[in-house]
Write a structure and sequence with these properties.
Belongs to the 4-hydroxybenzoyl-CoA thioesterase family. With 150 residues, this protein is an alpha+beta fold. The protein contains 3 helices and 7 strands; from the N terminus they run E-H-H-E-E-E-E-E-H-E. It is elongated.
């Protein structure tokens, strides 16, 4: 996880609870996706945008596609650091690269990419992100932007 344009990379910390694990005490694979979803939500919050407020304004973010690669298991009580780096910022979508690392040894446990689309809450059709939100991601995310349509 490297800083881009002098901006510290965003990371959300969480702990592995019993409910996150299988019978062997290992994090069930789909729960990494939940950890990454929470990190994206906290990334928005850090930029000053709550999903509940955006939904009230008729805007939702939905996962269009996801890709995950698993490297090592997390276990009960591990503290995790989950990054949410914006790779690509478009008019109506964001591409995130995310990593889940164990805090104790910085081991990479899981990594993935997610294409997240901005849609209208009433009909789930694509819509442009509000300019203040796009600007916040552009300034803090360090990602390349595109002015082309999605």
């Amino acid at each position: 996880m490297r800083a881009q344009n002098g901006v510290q990379p965003f990371a959300h910390r969480c702990r592995v609870y019993y409910e996150d694990t299988d019978a062997g005490g290992v994090v069930y694979y789909v729960n990494y996706l939940k950890f990454m979803e929470r990190a994206r939500t906290e990334r928005l919050r850090e930029l000053g945008f709550a999903q509940s407020t955006l939904a009230g304004e008729g805007l939702l973010f939905v996962v269009h596609s996801s890709e995950a690669r698993y490297h090592a298991p997390a276990r009960l009580d591990d503290e995790l650091s989950v990054s949410a780096e914006v790779l690509e910022l478009n008019r109506a979508s964001l591409r995130f690269r995310q990593q889940v690392r164990r805090v104790a040894d910085n081991a990479l446990l899981c990594e993935g990419q997610f294409l997240v689309a901005c849609v209208r809450a009433d009909n789930f059709k694509p819509r442009a992100m509000p300019l203040p939100l796009r600007t916040a991601f552009a300034e803090q995310g360090g990602a390349g932007t595109s002015t082309a349509g999605d």
